[in-house]
TrEMBL record:
GO terms for cellular component: cell surface; extracellular region. Keywords: Secreted, Signal. This is Transthyretin-like family protein. The keyword Signal applies. The keyword Cell division does not apply. It holds the Pfam family TTR-52. It is found in: Secreted. It comes from Teladorsagia circumcincta. Belongs to the nematode transthyretin-like family.
Length: 123
């Protein structure tokens, strides 16, 4: 089993306003009987910024994704809008990410709709 991880940073906005307190989580998607591994989970700060980084030990290469739950332009209740972004394999590191191994997703405006967007109730 080898140590593998990912590190992601970015900023979330709802139009011109920061999407503060949105939940972000990086997960290693596992197939078969092995459950998915949550590598890190945080809430965005007052400016909508976040940094998540985490590791796991796996025999095979990890399949990392970034999930975002938010309430931007969301008139449906209960639950939150949920986005999923696949993290490219080139950003997988051995436990200590070098600066170039951080995936910086930049600024994402959550006002629009996204492919494969869903809804989910999370705390």
């Amino acid at each position: 089993m080898r140590k593998q991880g990912v590190a992601v940073r970015g900023t979330l906005k709802c139009g011109p306003v920061a999407s503060n307190y949105s939940k972000v989580r990086i997960v290693d998607i596992d197939y078969g009987v092995d459950p998915d591994d949550t590598l890190d989970e945080k809430r965005t700060d007052d400016m909508g910024r976040f940094e998540v980084t985490g590791t796991t030990r796996e025999l095979t290469p990890i399949d990392p994704v970034l999930y975002i739950w938010h309430e931007c332009m969301d008139e449906q209740t209960p639950c939150s809008r949920k986005l999923k972004f696949v993290i490219p394999k080139k950003f997988i590191h051995n436990g200590n990410p070098a600066p170039e191994q951080w995936l910086d997703i930049g600024v994402i405006n959550l006002e629009g709709s996204f492919d494969d967007e869903g809804r989910e109730c999370v705390n």
